[in-house]
Write a structure and sequence with these properties.
With about 475 residues, the protein is an alpha/beta fold. Helix content is about 35%, strand content about 20%. The protein is built from 16 helices and 19 strands.
Length: about 475
């Protein structure tokens, strides 16, 4: 999730978002200063804690009816089932031992897709489809292929659309891998977290290297060559040496991209995390050192750092779009998807439309009840004000590019160039600490402070004071 680096005052590189390396040496006092801050990850703005029930199914239905179908759209399908609980998990998931609950849920999702598609005045043009979870590949192969067929029927899916699926290698079968290939999946994201057996035991996720390699072989045989691997730091028993070794093993598998996330220990929210021994968790400094070890290993192998927590081969589209200043960020993280409409299906899924954000009901029974009653299962959301839209664009560019011209953002929205002068003047403490550099009306985050970019972005967040306690720690 965060990169480690020296936080002494230093000039920013000419193009900070394009650096490959990660510097060393952490100012412990500065780390302590920022460690306790609670700030969002800014996969949206405003962020999910500010969603309210005022945006319900009726509001969402009106937004759907106003969609211009020829404009670019994306689809996200949430399949929240797992075979076994990983103790580090912070997602909305349900452990099942039988297929019947999954089959019933998929029936509800198909009905939701029909309801949503019926409200749009035409077949929405779609260039990105993402299956997340949970473990989407717990679906039966026939059910997965049928779901894709339904999406192709109800939406205008481009021939070259990206179709991505999150995969747990431990439960993937050769039959499912083949079905993914037949259905047109062209990008897979595999959860790894760590290759060390001691760590795996401590998080209740035993996944030998051979299991991951077998999954990759099946995907390759199915024609799915574009792969992302997920790694984590801050897990029990991890060390600088062990995470570096895991990164080296991951590199031997030649992924196109890697995501590197920090473990968020919140047992008061996720009770299964109480099974994790807090005494073997690294402190803030140790976590930063672990990330640095991973980041340096990946950088030395030629991967480019993408935003906060992603890495990609230089020729990968993520890296290309970052170089060109076109990188995006949504609820799935950093993305090449620039669609103005993202439709979310399934319990707890979040969608984004020009008018605002919507989230489906989180409890399964609430979601199912709405579907059975023929209602859109929207649980909450937020309508965007003009000020929200301006700040969303500004925060997006800062999170993607580590730099933003506030005057240019203001002009693009018909505001005076001085619109954010107060925020820039309020950055004096961050500038003094080397966390930000202000040059006229441009602000950028030095490569040395990459892990603290969320703190800089938060200075433009007018909603934060109303929900700061519900966000993750800054580092």
């Amino acid at each position: 999730m965060n990169a480690i680096t020296a936080l002494a005052v230093s000039p920013a590189p000419a193009n900070p978002s394009h650096s490959h390396g990660v510097a060393h040496g952490v100012d412990a006092a500065l780390l302590a200063k920022y460690d306790g801050l609670r700030v969002p990850r800014y996969t949206s703005y405003p962020t999910a804690p500010h969603f309210t029930p005022q945006v319900n199914g009726d509001v969402y239905g009106g937004w759907l009816e106003a969609i211009e179908p020829s404009r670019s759209g994306s689809l996200y399908l949430h399949v929240p089932f797992c075979q076994k609980m990983c103790w580090y998990c912070g997602c909305h998931t349900k452990i099942v031992a039988r297929y019947e609950p999954i089959a019933e849920y998929l029936d509800h999702m198909r009905r939701e897709i029909a309801m949503v598609a019926d409200r749009i005045p035409g077949r929405l043009a779609v260039r990105h489809i993402h299956f997340g979870g949970g473990t989407p590949t717990m679906m039966a192969p026939d059910d997965f292929e049928a779901m894709i067929a339904l999406l192709l029927k109800r939406f205008d899916v481009a021939d070259d659309a990206e179709l991505a699926v999150e995969i747990d290698p431990r439960t993937l079968t050769s039959e499912m891998a083949a079905a993914l290939g037949r259905a047109g999946v062209n990008r897979a994201s595999l959860g790894v977290q760590d290759f060390d057996e001691t760590v795996q035991q401590a998080i209740n996720r035993v996944q030998p290297r051979a299991v991951t390699e077998q999954a990759l072989a099946w995907l390759k045989d199915a024609g799915i060559a574009s792969v992302n691997l997920d790694l984590m730091y801050g897990l029990p028993h991890q060390s600088v040496e062990s995470v570096a070794r895991s990164a080296e093993i991951a590199l031997e598998m030649a992924p196109d991209r890697l995501s590197v996330f920090g473990y968020a220990h919140v047992p008061w929210m996720k009770t299964h995390q109480k099974k994790i021994d807090e005494s073997v968790l690294a402190g803030s400094l140790g976590r930063w050192e672990q990330f640095a070890a991973i980041a340096d290993t990946l950088s030395a192998a030629g991967y480019s750092a993408i935003g906060l927590d992603h890495f990609a081969r230089p020729g990968d589209e993520l890296a290309v779009q970052q170089e060109e200043g076109r990188l995006g960020r949504n609820f799935q993280g950093y993305t090449t998807d620039d669609a103005e409409t993202l439709l979310g299906f399934g319990s707890s899924s979040i969608g984004a439309l020009p008018q605002g954000y919507v989230q489906n009901a989180v409890p399964f029974d609430h979601y199912a009840t709405a579907i059975v009653e023929g209602r859109l299962p929207t649980g909450k959301g937020i309508a965007l004000t003009q000020d929200d839209k301006v700040r969303r664009d500004l925060i997006m560019r800062l999170m993607c590019d580590l730099s933003v011209d506030t005057a240019a953002i203001a002009r693009a929205h018909g505001l005076p160039e001085s619109a954010f002068d107060a925020e820039l003047e309020g950055m004096a403490d961050l500038v003094a600490d080397g966390v930000a550099v202000v040059d006229g009306r441009r602000i950028h985050v030095p490569e040395s402070a990459r892990p603290l970019m969320r703190i800089v972005a938060a200075r433009f967040d007018t909603h934060l004071s109303k929900g700061a306690g519900r966000h993750s720690r800054a580092v």
